[in-house]
Structure formats: structure tokens, C-alpha cells
From TrEMBL:
GO terms for molecular function: N-acyltransferase activity. This is UDP-3-O-[3-hydroxymyristoyl] glucosamine N-acyltransferase. One of its GO terms (cellular component) is membrane. InterPro entries: Hexapep (IPR001451), LpxD (IPR007691), Trimer_LpxA-like_sf (IPR011004), UDP_GlcNAc_AcTrfase_non-rep (IPR020573). The keyword Methyltransferase does not apply. GO terms for biological process: lipid A biosynthetic process.
Amino acid sequence: MKFPRKHSLIEIAELIDCNFIGDPEFPVLGMNEIHVVTPGDIVFVDHPKYYDKALESAATIVLINKEVDCPEGKALLVSDDPFRDFNKLTKHFKPFQGADKAIPDSVEIGEGTFLQPNVVLGNNVKIGRNCLIHANVNIGDNCIIGDNVIIHAGTVLGGDAFYYKKRADDFDKLLSGGRVVVKDNVEIGSNCSIDRGVTGDTIIGEGSKLDNLIQIGHDTVIGKQCLIASQVGIAGCVVVEDDVTIWGQVGIRSDVTIATGTVLMAQCGVSKDTTPNTTYWGTPFGEVRTKLKEYAAIKKLPEIVKNLK
């Protein structure tokens, strides 16, 4: 998320009422999660395990809960609760905007696009040319839809990220200020849910096709020409590269990369990065021929045990 204008370090510190280390006029251009930060961004960290990762990231302002040595060329915002203060910044720069009608005046809709009854669009939504948006689709604030896109009934684009911090007596929600971006020539089936990014974009790449009943988490990036079957669940911050096929009921954990040309057979449980142009199967998942050999070997176990007696 980039701010509408450049801010100074002291401005941001005063906004969230915290101390800072660095030049008071140090430039602050935006805020982002660690996997998408660029110079000028704020990143937050609240656990010693991740201090080095945050301090060594591309972010030049680190919102942290301990005074540490400040790396050269960077600045620190020192807070007793970075999670809370990151939310304060989201509320300030991306406040909730209620809508008083189904299609606000700020929406842009391209030539040849048709909206079926009961479509609800958020503020500042942009939809390209020659799209078909079926009944009861909900597209949240600031989302962008390309040209020649079809979205079937009941799908929700731009719901909040499933991102919580465990507190002593409750869960604290990380607020979502990002977007969903759907590129050209995409088709999305009925009753899918694609969450907005926390500060960045959840992206569905050009020409990809999604079946019904698919969940895609915050900040996940789906590449070009991907095919995703029904009941797939993809967690947040996943990268699915181009020409990937994902069959029904596959589950993919967060922070993994599904390499170009990967095929995930039905009901795979994916827990780590894949190798390009490889087919996988099973839970825990593995290369399909290897897994089939393993299952064949397991079938022989009763006979082996019997012969050992």
C-alpha cells in the first residue's frame, strides 16, 4: 500500500504515538507485509525470531517492539505493540467506506460489460470491457477486473484476510487494506471466495480458469493460464506460477511456491515448494510415480509381516 503523499518519520510516529530512531524527516512512502515491501515502506515485526528478516528486508522503516541497532539507511518506529499500530495505520490510510447503493458513483465499468441483478460493487471498483458478472456477485472496495472476464453467481472478491494474532483472551484481527486484481480473460466459477491482500494485491493471472467453490487467501498470486478445479483451498501468500493445473480438493499451505507447469492431483496436501513441470499426488504429497510405488509397497506389508512369523 502506497500512501497518497510522502510522509516523514516523525509524522508517522505521532500518528501512532510511538518513539522512533532515525532522521525525523526520513521519507515514508507506504506500508506493506514483508513479502511485498519496497524501499520507503513500513514493515512490522513483533517477535525476536523475525527481527533479522524484517531489518534486512527491502523495507526502510521497521515498526518493532524493541530498541535495536538501526541498519544504515533505515529508520525504526519503536512500539509496545506493532500489530496494533500497523492496524492504526491501515485505519488511517484505508478507512472503511460504507456504501449507500449497490453500485457507487466511484465505480468504473467498461464498454460491453453486463451486470446481472443483485451484483454489489464496492467503492472505486474498476471493471474492464466485455465482462459478464452474474447475479449476487460481491466485489469489494478498490478491486480491479480486467477485460473479457466472467464471474459466476455468488462469488465474493475482496473479503478480509484470515489473519489473526492470539491474545490472552481473544484473537486480534489484522485489518485488510489491499485489493483483488483479476487480469484479462479470466473465468471464475460460482461461490468462490478470493480474499483481498492485507496491504498489497491478491492476483488472478491472465487467462486462468477457476471452477466453483474455491477459496484463495490474501496476497496469493495466481499466474497465467492456470486451471483450478472445485473445492481447492489456497492459503495466503502463495505463489502459483504459470500453466499450473490444480485438481479438486487440493489444500495448499501459506508461503509456498507452486512452480510453472506443476500438476497437483486431487486431494494433494501441499506443504512445500514444487519442482517445475512435475506431477504430485497424496498427503503428504510427493512426485506421483514415487507415491504410487510407495502405496504398492504398503499393500505388500501384510504378506511381509505374515512371513516373518
